[in-house]
Predict the structure.
Amino acid sequence: MGVASRFILRRRGGKSWHWTDIVTWVWLVGGLIIMFGPAVWLAFSSFKTPAALAEFPPSILPYVTSQATVQGYDKPLQLFDAKMPDGSTKVLAEVRRIGLVAQMVDPKAPGEIVRVNINDRTPVRSVSFATENYTTPFTQFDFLQYLWNSVFVTVTATLITLIVNSMAAFALSKYEFRGRSLAMLVILATLMVPLSVIMVPLYSIISSLGLFNNLWGVILPTVATPTGVFILRQYMLTIPDELIDAARMDKASEWQIYWRIVLPLTAPALAVLAIFSVVWRWNDFLWPLIVLSRRELYTLQVGLSIYSGELNVQWHFILAMTVVTMIPVVLVFIFLQRFITTGIAGTGLK
Amino acid sequence: MTAPTPSPTLTERLGSLLMAPVHLLMRAIDIPLRAVQKAAGIGGMATVFLAPNMLIFGIFVLLPLVINFVYSMTGGTAFFLTERQFVGADQYARLFQCANYLDPMSCQEDAFWTAVGNTFWFVVLQVSLMILTALITALILNRDLAARSFWRAVFFFPVLLSPVVVGLIWKWILQRQGLLNFGLYQFGVEPYTWLTDRNWTFVATIGVSLWAHMGFYALILLAGLQAIPKDLYEAAEMDGTKPARVFWRITLPLLMPNLLVVVVLALIRAVQIFDEVYVLTGGGPGTSTLYLTQYIYETGFASALRNPGLAAAASILMGLVLVVLTLIQLGIGQRGEKKGKR
């Protein structure tokens, strides 16, 4: 204890404690609990049976009450720790309950019925993970389809975003042409056009193109991101023009220059954009909600919100599917967090 | 003598195998594009490269922006423009038709004004709390901490979660048998159904959006703090300046450009709040957490009496607010750049 507290309370340079140090620790530890706690709680809850979810006060770990099949009884009986009149405790199976008295039997000697006051018995519980919360939505509901739709939208939209945005960024950074500053201005000006401002006319455009109830109707409006063009262009401006001139001397076509020289050199910026695009598209909600109205086309986000809004919410399934929806983003967070934080700090995009 | 080239590793071979069809595709694209290049010249290729992006951008961003105005001046429930009749400024007039201008409930579109009022209070409270908590977090993360990148990640974690997931996490916690009631139960407070209480749901939407986005703004502020030259602080320390004075005289003035950007960004985002609230409360109970984007969505698509023209008019009014905020932000950015040049 002494060593541990000395380690935790140690200060750099051996200075004494100041009130700001206390505030810092309270804020950090409180932050740790408030930021991670809810997600961890959700993950734990997702392994509970519906009966355990309805319990109050809730337990942290998923428990189930133990049951046993006893000779002479068709159904499995629930096991209890019962306090016997002589003060000892014994594991008994409950046959039936009449008022305040439970009729119980010893599973090992099922012949004799023991009467126990219900206040003298507590259920035997063991930790058990209800993995069927995860398997049932995939096998019996459409969640496998939703997962596939989400993956398809995310991957396709990200690939198109990378190609189309990098081509535009190449044109805007390496060519002198009339209307270049106009194009830049238009892109910058619409950097902030949010979906909520254009959703009504955008919907009419999507349906006149026949893309209503079509995953492409979700993908296409998102791919020409001004932010993407902007970061890629800023990065391409740092590539020396001499490289391109040398390639032109060697009779390389402009497409080859873009594909063989500029794109490989832009890899770091492309990686940042790819990570952001994956997170954006995976998390998109309002637009897929508008475009997709057939169940088999829902993305995970839409499917989850529709299921959770239904009258008899099956929380055990919803919780498990929420965890599944969280997994890709948590993986991105664990492995690529550094790229994202530097990306945001540098450009202020999200 | 040349050094022997190292034989490619398995991953390198696998990579080149996977990339082979891509390279083939790019070569195939090159053939027609060479012909285009011959016809249009090197300069003309810029248009070719720009075309796909501009085409998609034009169809799905610029065109909707323009026809939104047309939409807002037409009536009916049809979505195709040709099937809608022109009504002039009727939709705007409908939004602004009130018996008594001091009482939003007396307006014809009382839902719109309820949404405006809710959004206003939401923005005021959420943004001020957001700036305060993000600033405190950034200041703390900027201290000489052990494992700073870990702590930064802790506060940043919820930013990446999808709004639907955020909504569901908190819906689960605020349930009657949820974690919050469990925590309060330890102190003898009886379980309460938070999400059926008009006042508490409003508080919950603010709290949840704070939880989900605070890390983002803290990160921008932290970058600003780290850009402040260290020698200023060293000089202040040598002069024996009090920490509070250092904060008000050095930290805050030098952080101001970042702080203003964060305020405007937070305002722009808060005005458009929708996703997590929609999942958490669905705008309810009643209309206590009905915000503007949800009003537009429901008026345009979801309700039985849908009125796309009215939704378009409301979205243009919202757009005007956002334009003003964006112009402020651009103004701040330009001033910051000028300062940087000097």
Observations:
- The longest helix of chain A spans residues 315-347.
- Chain A touches chain B through 96 residues (CB under 8 Å).
- Chain A is about 60% helix and 10% strand.
